[in-house]
What we know:
The protein contains 31 helices and 28 strands. The strands form 5 sheets. It has a 6-stranded antiparallel sheet, with helices on both faces.
Amino acid sequence: MRHTEAQLRTIIEQVPAVIYTESAIDKKLIFISPQVEKLTGYSSEDWQSSPDFWKEILHPDDREAIIKADNEAALSRAPFHQEYRILTRAGRTVWIYDEAVLIRDQNGQPLYWQGIMLDISQQKYRELEVEGLAQLAQTLEKSLDLPSLLEQILKTAIQVIPSAEKGTILLTDQNGRLKIQAAQGYADKRVLTASFPLEKGYSARAFRNKKAEIISDARANAEIRYDGEIEEIGTIQSAVVVPLIAHENYIGVISLDNVSRKDAFAEHDLRMLESFAATAALVIERARFYEEIERRSAQKTVLNAILLAANRASNDVGALLQVTLDQLLNTLGLSMGAIWLTQTHFGEHKLVTRNVSPELSQAMLRIAQEQQMDLREVCRINEFLDNTDPLSKILTEQHGIQAAIAAPLFAEGKRIGGLAIASAQLRQWEEREIWLLDSISKQLGLMIERVRWYNETQKNLSRLETIYKISLSLRKAQNIEEALPLLLDEILSVMHTNAGSVMLYHPQSHTLKRVVARGWFTELDEQPQRINEGIAGAVFSSAKSYVTADFASDPLVHKPALGKIPPGWGGACIPIRTTSTTLGVFFVSVQLPRQITTDEVTLLESLADIASSALQRMSLYEETVHHLERLSALREIDRVISASFDLDLTFSTFLHQTIKLLGVDAANILLYNPHIQVLDRVTWLGFFTPLQSKLRLRLGESLAGWAALEQRTLFVPDLTSQKDIMTKPELLEGEYFRAYCAHPLISNGQLKGVIEVFSRTEISPDQDWFNFLDTLAGQLVIAIDKARLFEDLQRSNLELSKAYEATIEGWSRALDMRDKETEGHTQRVTEMVLELAELFGVNQPDLVHIRRGAILHDIGKMGIPDRILLKPGPLTEEEWKIMRNHPQYAYEMLSSIEYLRSALDIPYCHHEKWDGSGYPRGLKGEQIPLAARLFAVVDVYDALTSDRPYRKAWPHQAALDFIGEQSGKHFDPDVVKLFLKMMEGKNLPSTRE
């Protein structure tokens, strides 16, 4: 019996369900299987500790109903089967299916209740999920209003996830923040206005990381903790948050919160909310799309009406305003509104109203005329109440308007009026209404602009035709010299006169110069005019047009022109200006009684704008070509400097480019000799007469000497009047030079020389000319420094190479002195291996490394003790073991020397053998470096034909026979073949003497 009972208990303990037995008399728990601890977190002993333990862990929402059902089953003796929730030791909610039947004895008397409890949480969660999605589908069918949808979505989500006590839906706004659009369970109304940056809070983190997550402790981490003004949000203990994704676009998050405890949510809650959020996001996106369609439809209706009115009204602004206001009010279902204009630029002050009292209309018109209203963007009525705007006071205090929106009207970048709609009832303006008002105000401003443009177009049609004609003429001109006569002739043609002139400003001399003249202007003096003199100077300085009835009697006329101007000719002087500077002026003169009208001045100013644009364009083009030529010259000089160290070639290129681009006729270069402190002329170009090539100047002698001594540029505009400043003026006889410039060549504060340039015509160089000369001089200094640096580097490199070679040979001689038996061996094998390597086709750079390797081939013997190295007789096996280390010693000595690293092959590998039996590494075949294979043959040959303490030298032929025998064993067969061929042509003695 006990065995059977033990078997039964074992079976019960293996069943995944919880099996229990309860007394039918006192409801005391007799037995409960150990699985109950896995299900609830409480052990069997916990369950049996008290008859009421089961009731204490029932979910509060289910406790009353389940206890009642349990009592009824106890009274009726009917089977007990219920679904309910319990709270585990960890605080989680678990759904239980509990079924128990009463067991009776043979006489029908109650014995005990036998029950089973099953975990049906997953089934219940799936049912709740399906139920929630079904509710969501029903919500979608009933409404497309976004606020209502959001509220219902959130309410349904909280219902399907029991641990959720509160919740919010946050969507991204136009500022890139997450704004709460719906909330459930929160009493503070400020929750619906809260928004959060994407850098703080767990909702923002889930959105930013695009990942759903469970927040076990919402207060533990400063990154996600809320510490704002809304206390109710700060009470959240735990949460589950899931991003809302619609068509791969992240539009917000849904967050469910628990304020009672931490760790309130489990993985199944997260999965359920993710499934729910996927559908919810599509619902939200659909509602948004529907709203957008409605908004665009309303806008399209109003805008179509406005466009139709604009087409019908032609240039009637009043009709356009009336249709716009009627359509806007009709679309929004309102009856009260107004549109006003304040800028006379668009006509007289206008005010269009609907259902607005005469008193309010007059007040609005007065305020509009006085321009007291500071309306810069769309404003609601509550924003009016927050300031002292005159219109807001009238609206709220005198006319009882409770809700209003106003938007500014802008045209041509200026505020020209406003548009307002109002209601006598309190109301919350929707975003679509504000958006529509803003859109209409912008479109209306464009329409008003169009009306004005239409009127201006009609008024200025002839002016535009004239401008086009002149512009077309200017396009034919290739440069300023061609353009100005064309411009003046066209202007005079348009003005039906024949007298006029154009004067341009020269910044170098700060004067105005007449460049083209027609009619009586050709009789005037052509001398430059200062910019503070005459009518031209006044117009240039003020950049304002000037009109006179008679030039001859005008008090501003230039004094030298008095008596040369014919009487009875008046006209205008117009500035030719860009946005930042004035380029010059032009005159147009007409004969009395005709006078220049205001409209003609406006036309002339328009033509001046065309002229300034054309002149600036041509000037920029010429300047661009000039700069490109200079850049090309600098590039050519750079190319020569980079490609060659030949200073003569560099100097020649430099002088050609200098003469060409500086607009001079000749140039020469003098280099400074710091040892004797003189300037020597090294090259020249552009001179008529042969120059003395040995010209030498002391510092301070002649202009070039002064430029070098003072290290500054010297410019002489007229050499003919200052020949005495040249130390040797006879050298320039027959050259007819007029202008001269000397520029020192300086590098890091040190004088390198002087460049001289000469011009046979008068020149007035500007700062750009001197800057370019300085740039050219800088390039020349680079070339000089580079050439001298290269010379110094070559000299240093040669000296360093000699020092390295002397060091290597010193090491070799030191080894020979130590190992006297091999004295002369190094020199012989070096010469022979170089000869063999050349026959093998080794290139010259590698021969250098072979030579160094041959010289140092036994350098490793420095590490061999004298008792072994200098031993007169044969070495023992142990001594040979030490001796064979000398190639490794060579590697260790030389591998760290970068200069000798490429020469290591011979010292390290010349004792390796073709068949792999050599040392130190046992290399085989072509694993052995070529240099070592070549040297091995030569080394063995010389060793065999040299006397050793333990043997006499072999005859040469015997040594050659031995090497032939070792082909393919000790030596590379190809090397042996070439070596024997090389030795055939030599007249060798029988033995080395």
